[in-house]
Amino acid sequence: MANYARSLSTAEGYSGYGAEQGKKALRKAIAETFYRDFQVKETEVFVSDGSQCDITRLQLLLGSNVSIAVQDPSFPAYVDSSVIIGQAGDFEDKTGMYGNIQYMKCRPKNNFFPDLATASRSDIIFFCSPNNPTGHAATRQELEQLVRFAKENGSIIIFDSAYAAYISDDSPRSIFEIPGAREVAIEVSSFSKFAGFTGIRLGWTVVPEELSFSNGFPVINDFNRIVCTCFNGASNIAQAGGLACLSPEGFASVHSIIKCYKENAKILLDTFSSLGLKVYGGENAPYLWVHFPGSKSWDIFTEILEKTHIITVPGRWWALDPVKSPMLFFEKSKPLIPPVLSGVGLNKLGFDFVGSLARSALLFAFHPQLLQLCSTN
Ligand SMILES: Cc1ncc(COP(=O)(O)O)c(C=O)c1O
Does 73 sit behind a cis peptide bond, omega within 30 degrees of 0 on the bond before it? Predict the structure, then answer.
């Protein structure tokens, strides 16, 4: 990336506007790296400045006259972009939810997968796997069910695979692993979580040629138009970085960092489980979803922040019941976590335990790992 940036100051290396859809070499590398066995063509890959931006560009494509469904809880961009584009109804203070949006409950008791037998039809289904915030990756069987449901109802699935690189079991890493998905799904994905490109900004969206609107017009043609009109393509420098990540050497080093994040998640998972807390995620995602029964998530957030200087993300952010659990994860390097002082630790949450680690050599190793854990976020 540095070499590419330097070369821009030379007559030979300078490049101006590029193809809005992304550099051919990068589109090809994404298709071959992530979709080799699933018939995704490089021309179906649109390189972006991140999946969040593409989520909104897709909403622009779909317009305000569509109905949407989201997992509950899920990454807020789906609902917020829906509100911005005019799909949603009024906000209800009591529930923290918007009208005209179908919130499909995904909780431990349904293995974080919506009950499709009772779900109503919607034009668009946003589905994230591994889910942010729960960390749950949908199984093959569940995704087959989802694709079938979309086919039966004439819905389009917008599948967010931003955290796919963290999947440890045999859960699908892409919706295109599921037969039939090419007729009903779009996939958005990202270099942010895969390669720590949160600030560099790089992602991609796959729109299969087979996907069409109800009048038979191919969605890919309209998405291409949106990309060419509302976006001038990802930065050349970021794309050079993306290409480097997909080289054999780059790919190996990206995976060694992913391995490290996964080890950190395991330490957190084991630690919070050993404290008797109900913990989800951490196996197919680098973050945890921790249940603090009976506590309001903002209260827990404040308590943890004030007493330990650790930033967590309260469940309220995901429009969850405010009385339920916050997800607990950690920002990359600041604020630093001071040792938890004896007697100051959060007894109720087991932070005395963490305090006891602070006085041993263990926490020395533990701290940087905590800090690293969600440095992709
Ligand atoms: C599930 C999910 N999708 C998308 C994004 C946004 O990714 P990007 O940085 O590519 O815009 C995030 C960021 O937190 C996320 O958690």
Answer: yes
